[in-house]
Amino acid sequence: MTPPPSARRWAELARDLEFHQLPELRRQAEGWRTALSGLTALLAVLVVLKGQDNLAQLSTPARYAATALVTTAFALLVTGTLLAVRASHGRPGSEIVLGGQALRRWTEDETVRVTRSIRRAAVSCVAGLVLAASAVGVTWTAAGAPPDHLVRVRTATAEICGELVSADREGMVVRSGQGGGDRKLRTVARRALVTLTPVTSC
To answer: Per residue in 104-129, pLDDT tens?
Structure first.
């Protein structure tokens, strides 16, 4: 029984796929490389522009945790980018195979290597995004609400900006510092006070 024309066409396409599979995988890897490069650059820009300000408001353990998460996420995205580059352009210095059977074996082996690299790049991309999102979550949850009763206190020798903790006839106590465990209580005697100004931020 003669197979229908559509079946013969599908069989021809299946045979042709053996010769086009590697170039198709290379094109997929180029797409992953472009996406990973963009994500890595975006993460680097966000860390440089906003990371320092946000981390300064955290306690020391939260700061270390967020820094570790961002660093690991950046490393994973860079690793994924390198894997995608390897998959899309091959290994540097690879030998050009001229024999027919040798070329076939090399193509089959390279197809397996490219497929493996694309999968690892995808895993690195997802893991990097999850860790970056976790770092953002740590920053949001650990930052806490801004302090109330912010004041700027000037004396003859210094200026202090922070949260007014207490005040009486002897003087006042102001909590100053960047945030978390780095904040310090500072006492200002009433006789040393020059000005006391309420502020919305320090």
So the answer is: 777 778 888 888 888 898 898 889 88
**What pLDDT digit, counting tens, does each position of 61-99 carry?**
888 888 898 889 889 988 888 888 888 877 655 555 566
User: Hey, is 184 helix, strand or coil?
Assistant: strand
DSSP 202: -
For residue 157, what is the DSSP state? S
Cα 21 vs. chain centroid, distance in angstroms?
33
CA distance 122 to 150: 47
159, β-bridge pairs:
154
Strand ranges for the chain from DSSP E: 150-155, 159-167, 171-176, 184-189, 193-198
